[in-house]
């Protein structure tokens, strides 16, 4: 019912209260409990906030997001609320501060309705790595919703909030958006402050929204974006708006990455949809050309060498002493750390910490970490070179549609989910997954656009245009 902010606002204009809107979502959350999108619902608090915002609306003092009900991924800090990154090691931990992104949403009167399930520390592509149980894809419940922001995708796709927030290190917003038929937007690295985002791989992590409309994606992202004294890697300017401009016929230069289109693992129906999209764009007079990006094979290895290295360092703070869960009956530092970490972290997280420690270790550092950094630079340079000639790059979001729960057992197979999404994180560019098709198996899938650094308006404008062309 309230699938976009415009719909919420028009209901409010016609006499619906924000309390009504929140109550609607709470009922839906209860009815769809079994998909397990939420780890916690802030029921009483959301109703109370809604009452306050109803009063503000009456007094004409409400913020830009009054009436917007948002779920946040469980790796975003929210003062006096639990945050666990879906890990046992942080079970019961309450945050003592609020992430900048969340704070800015609240400042504009968005209502935070709860914390959303995800893969533990954002490591995964199916949400099966959550320590608190997996999430069902609301489109077909025997399928995964994708990951790591699987709860964020499932909650919005099931109609449990107006929008949701996730984080994207290597595709964690775009891949679940593709699997659930949503828009998933990863802005340029640094557009949104990472302060209060539980770090996985700091030079990759970026917060972003899941929405049903481009207008909502632009609005929410702009609210969260802009400089922040708590994150030195954040953009140095204030951002008020990402205006959506009209795209004129024949004005675009689109490069489609032929290596992705020809990739062996790509589902033929996704390939066909991409080819059709290319034809539609050409018919509208745009320049659409194949471009070569010959590093597809290097993408996943480079991503996993570098992100695991960063993760091994970032996750060293979870000792059971400073944060979260302390193992029972332990003596001395070594035993305390060992037992708390062994019991607190899940298998995938442990695997990545070990891999990251290995690639950073003396003797292997140059062979893996330094080499990985060099390849990253080559990928960045090539991406920028292509985007100096084209407005956007067009490629699939995922090789296939959502898979069966438990259906992908092989780690490499799981990592290959990210083959088309990690380019934007390695290069830092903004990228978006747009719900462009439905497969004959009944599942949605997305197409992806990669834009120029800090040109979110341009990317969102082209996205809106492409989604309109589709209809
Ligand atoms: N976090 C992400 O962006 C997802 C990616 N599949 C990973 O496991 O690293």
Question: Which keywords apply here?
Answer:
alpha/beta; 40% helix; Amidase signature (AS) enzymes; 13% strand; 16 helices; binds asparagine
Task: Give the helices and strands, then pairings.
Layout: H1 5-13, H2 18-31, E1 38-41, H3 43-58, E2 69-73, H4 100-107, E3 111-116, H5 150-157, E4 163-168, H6 174-180, E5 183-186, E6 206-211, H7 214-224, E7 253-257, H8 258-261, H9 268-283, E8 287-291, H10 296-314, H11 332-344, H12 347-360, H13 365-389, E9 392-396, H14 411-415, H15 422-427, E10 431-438, E11 444-450, H16 456-470
Parallel strand pairs: 2-3, 2-4, 7-8, 7-9
Antiparallel strand pairs: 1-3, 4-6, 5-6, 5-10, 9-11, 10-11
Helix pairs in contact: 2-3, 5-6, 7-16, 10-12, 10-13
The chain binds asparagine.
Structure write-up:
Keywords: ATP-binding, Ligase, Nucleotide-binding, Protein biosynthesis, Transferase. Heterotrimer of A, B and C subunits. The structure is a single chain. The chain is an alpha/beta fold. The chain is 40% helix and 13% strand. It has helices at residues 5-13, 18-31, 43-58, 100-107, 150-157, 174-180, 214-224, 258-261, 268-283, 296-314, 332-344, 347-360, 365-389, 411-415, 422-427, 456-470, and strands at residues 38-41, 69-73, 111-116, 163-168, 183-186, 206-211, 253-257, 287-291, 392-396, 431-438, 444-450. Helix 4 links the parallel strand 2 (69-73) and strand 3 (111-116). Helix 2 packs antiparallel against helix 3. Residues 122-125, 148, 168-172, 307, 418 line the site of asparagine.
